[in-house]
Amino acid sequence: MKKLLTGNEAIARGAFEAGVLVAAAYPGTPSTEILENISKYDEIYSEWSVNEKVALEVAAGSSIAGARSLVAMKHVGLNVAADPLYTIAYEGVNGGLVIITADEPGMHSSQNEQDNRLVAPHAKVAMVEPSDSQESKDFIKEAFKISEMYDTPVLFRVTTRVCHSKGPVEIGTREEVGIKEYVKDIKKYIMVPAHSRVKHVEMETERIPRLRDYSNNGPLNRIEWNDKKIGVITNGASYLHSKEVFGDTASYLKIGFSWPLPDKLIKEFAEGVDKLYVIEENEPYMEQFIKAMGIECIGKEIFPVCGELNPQIIRSAISGEKIENPFELELEIASRPPALCAGCPHRGIFYALTRYKNKIVVTSDIGCYSLGAMAPLGMGDTVICMGAGITAGIGFDKVNQMADRNKKVFGFVGDSTFFHSGMTGLVNAVYNRSNMVIVILDNRITAMTGHQDNPGTGKDIKGIEAPEVDIVGLVKAIGVKESNIRVIDPYIMDENISAVKDAMDATEPFVIITKQPCALIKEVQKEREGLYCQIDQDKCTQCKTCLRIGCPAISMKDNVVSIDINECNGCQVCMQVCPFDAIDFFGKEVK
Amino acid sequence: MEKSLLLVGVGGQGTILVSKILSEGLLEEGYDVKMSEIHGMSQRGGSVTTQIRFGEKVYSPTINTGEADVLVSFEKLEATRYLSNLSKDGTLIVNDVEIWPLPVLSGLEEYPEGIMEELNSKVKNVISINAGTIAEELGEPRSQNIVMLGLTVKALGLENIDWVSKIKKFLPEKVHEVNIKAFERGLIS
């Protein structure tokens, strides 16, 4: 039976069929749906871990204990998980261990476009790369075999176009491989220098040469001989784009096992073709290897390093022809950036801060609240990575003091980000006597990635009730004084304003925790159904104050300000900022 | 012969759902199908695009400048944003509704005037409809995406596929009836 699956759905299906018993992940686009789909199988223990390092360590432990284990993350998540990765590579596995890195050429929803293929040779872990949904399923099963056969973790590298493209997939059945016996072996699993030295030599002299043989002779790297005037060495989504461009007019070396690269196969292929192209997204990973072998090829001289490839870019790079727009419109096309939703609980606190905009610095973080930096709210100076909303604020604040800038630093993190890597930052702020303000936006969900549960929501990945970690209690336990903590309802402007005012005067670490669930949570939408605000046109003076909160439900057309009641969820922030009492609330109040 | 179909709209309009329904129907009909979606931050009111390619054998899931046989835009400003992806002789299907993006709402940018006139003057084959009004008449404003599905199916000449069962598969039971009506309204528009 064939089903239309995304790459992520196919990976989940492949994990199921491969007999995986443990799967862990932290959500991150474009990888999130892998675990969401795996969690539907009762045969697999799955979890949202608090971060990627934790997820990989959980999977490493379950692998050593004897179970086939899978861990998934977005590309930048692998940075967080780098510490265990580089050492579990030495230890190897017991039950197979597959680590999925979902890279994002083109950065549709990411802060950088790092090419994680470069990690494989550095960490010395085998690497597998599928091109489409069918391969995503088949290669996962092969990856577990490789992992167990060669005693190595396998890095399974996909990209957005593989993760989020659907294609037909032949569905198979689950093969129960069970749990392998665990035999205590401290030379293999305790990485102290004496053991690691031996392991490193073993990897170089035994494991890697064997993997190279597999690369040259195994099923994942293959030559498709067609016309031999042009040869293309390619991988992942680039293989699909290349096939679209050249069809049968070129020969292909399709790389599905990309570390170690297949030196003999590359040599054989290069000798068989007149002109050799290396077509790969982002870094010249394969190209550099091929050139280092002394083989002449064309790569990044003509193909771009930045962004995604597609058939058009490849065609244009080879022919030199410019891509022409078939329709030139005589219109100024207004931009449509993502924005905080109508009724978003983050809006109130950002708006309360706008009155201090010249007296503050806002170090923001990864999550919907990074959108607070956009006009008209403009609340954001920095966004770096998960957790840096707090920690970059610590450094910024120290320099503000040295330079006598008299600016208060407000660091923002969400609930899920706080658990991910904000907690350690808060400990650092307390320990190192920062006097920054930390705002924890607790909307009781991991929102940006499409609503995953986290330790603060009281539910696990399967939606089953779970212990709820108390953020306020945690903040107190870390050492923030009770007099420096405000827990507020961000829909109530007086609470936002008073908390910000107290924070401005603070001389010690100060924490504001906003508590109001994401407006897009289904239960919340149901609860607030029928609630809305409306403008009393008799009282409205078109002063535009309500427009400055940046709510997509409020607009001004032909000098009339109005609220779209289909969009509005009755949060009443606009009503509270209106200086003329011209906004009314309708519907039954929610507690 | 392969066909490339690009669907664009605003986060929350249901373009991805329509793409899923279309892809399932095309697969059942025996085509090789590739569908690619770009989402992530799109739920927060940004632009959403999905690309469907189908035919005997399809490799790349992407559609680029001048390559779409059909561009279906669920909102008219989005039609202008992605028009360059339509092929010279391609068909443009536009939902003649206006959704203001935040920069327009907050007065920083303007929503362009005369979009339909401009599109009609530049593109040979334009099919426009106000799916918003139709959906409201049906009493379910959210069904405008399914009106657009009906219109797209008709434009592609794919009426023989069993779309009703796909609509039923992807939507909750309580809205089956209204969405089937919405689909039929799209088909005859």
Overview of this protein structure:
The complex is a heterodimer of chains A (591) and B (189). In chain A, the strands form six sheets. In chain A, strands 3-2-4-5-7-6-12 form a seven-stranded mixed β-sheet, sandwiched between helices. In chain A, strands 15-14-16-17-19-18 form a six-stranded parallel β-sheet, sandwiched between helices. Chain A has a four-stranded mixed β-sheet with strand order 9-11-10-13, sandwiched between helices. Chain A starts with a strand and ends in a 5-residue tail after the last strand. With 591 residues, chain A is α/β, with parallel strands linked by helices. The longest helix of chain A is centred in the middle third of the chain and has 25 residues, at 193-217. Chain A contains 21 helices and 23 strands. Chain A folds into four domains: 2-217, 3-Layer(aba) Sandwich (Rossmann fold), CATH 3.40.50.970; 221-319, Rossmann fold (3-Layer(aba) Sandwich); 347-521, Rossmann fold, CATH 3.40.50.970; 528-586, 2-Layer Sandwich (Alpha-Beta Plaits). Chain B is an alpha/beta fold and 189 residues long. Chain B has helices spanning 15-28, 76-82, 102-105, 115-122, 131-137, 144-156, 163-170, 176-188; strands at residues 3-10, 32-38, 47-55, 68-73, 86-95, 125-129. In chain B, helix 1 (15-28) runs parallel beside helix 6. At the A-B interface, strand 8, helix 11, helix 14 and strand 21 of A face helix 1, strand 2, helix 2, strand 5 and helix 3 of B. Strand 8 of chain A pairs antiparallel with strand 2 (32-38) of chain B, so a sheet runs across the interface.
